[in-house]
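User: Predict UDP-N-acetylenolpyruvoylglucosamine reductase's structure from this.
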Amino acid sequence: MPSPIALPRVFENYSLQALNTFGIDVKARYFVEIQSIEQYLSLLNSGLYAHVPHVFWGGGSNVLLTQDLDALVVKIAIYGIEVIKEDDQYVWVRAGAGVVWHDFVLYTVAHHWSGIENLSLIPGTVGAAPMQNIGAYGVEIKDSFDHLLAFHLHTHVLQTFDAATCEFGYRESFFKHDGKGQYLIAYVCFKLSKEAQIQTSYGAIKDVLQAKNILEPSIQDVSQAVIEIRQSKLPDPKEIGNSGSFFKNPTLPQNQAEVLMKAYPQIPHYPVAGSTDIKFPAGWLIEQAGWKGFRDGDAGVHAKQALVLVNYGKATGQEILRLSEKIKSSILTKFGISLETEVNIL
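Assistant:
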C-alpha cells in the first residue's frame, strides 16, 4: 500500500505582505503551501479547516488586499515543466500551476518554441494565467492554450478543460464566473510552434526592434523587446508596490465608439478580434482625466503609466481602493465609460 500523504504545515495569523505585489500588510487566519494535489486532498480529508473558506494563491500579482482574511490561504507550489507530446510542427508543454509565468516564458523561448514570447515579464504564475486569459502586445493565452487540469473542490476529481470549456474572453474565463471557487488549477498545457510565429504589430515592439536595426527578429528578440518596453513603463513591485494594470481596457460597440472618436479624434483605438467592438486604452483615458502621477499619501497613480496604481510605502488596501473608485467616477463623468477593475479585490 502507498504511504499516506503527510499533512502540510499550516500557519496561523500569517502575514501576506511579502506574498502580494502591492505590499499590503494584512494577515491570513491560516496559511499553507501545497506542492501537489495529493497534499491538498490530505488536508481536505482531515476536515481540520472545513470551517473557513479556502483562498488559492499564486504570485499575488493580481490582487488588492483590503482586510485580514478569515480564511485558509492555500499557496499553490506545484512546479515542473515537461514536454508531453510533439510532432514536426508543434510541441505540447505542460507546467505546474506554481511555476512563475515569466520563468516559463523564458524556458520556452530558450527552447525556440513560439507562441507566448509576447507575454514576457507578465507577473504571476502559470496557474493564474488562464483564469485571467492574460494578454499583451497582440497575444492572449487562448491563442496557444491546449488544456488544463483542475481539481474539483467538491467531487475531488481532476478534470480536463480545453479552450472551449474554459470560455475565454477578454481577461475572462469560466474560472472567474460559473467555475469561481469550485476548482484548483494544477497544471496548464500549451501548444507551441517549432517555427517562429513573429508578431510585432502591436504596441512599440516594432519601434524597439527598428532602433536596434533588427529587421528579421527571432522570438528571443521579440521577448527581449517586450521586456524592455515593460520595464520602461511599469514599476518594479520590489521597488514600488503595484499589481500592473489595475483596470481593463474598455471595449465599446461600434456606434458608441464612433461617437467617442469623433469627440476625441486623437484617442488610440484597436479592433477586437471576432467582433465589431472597438477597444480603447484605459491608461489614455485616465491620463486625459488628469490622474497620471497623482498621489494621495502613499496611494497613487504611476507617473509613467496611468493604468498602474501604486503603493509608495504604507498605503492600505482601502486607500488604494478608494483612489480607484475616484478614478472610475472621473472617467464615467468625462467619457461616459465605466471602467472595470482587472485586479481581484479581497
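The mean pLDDT is 92.
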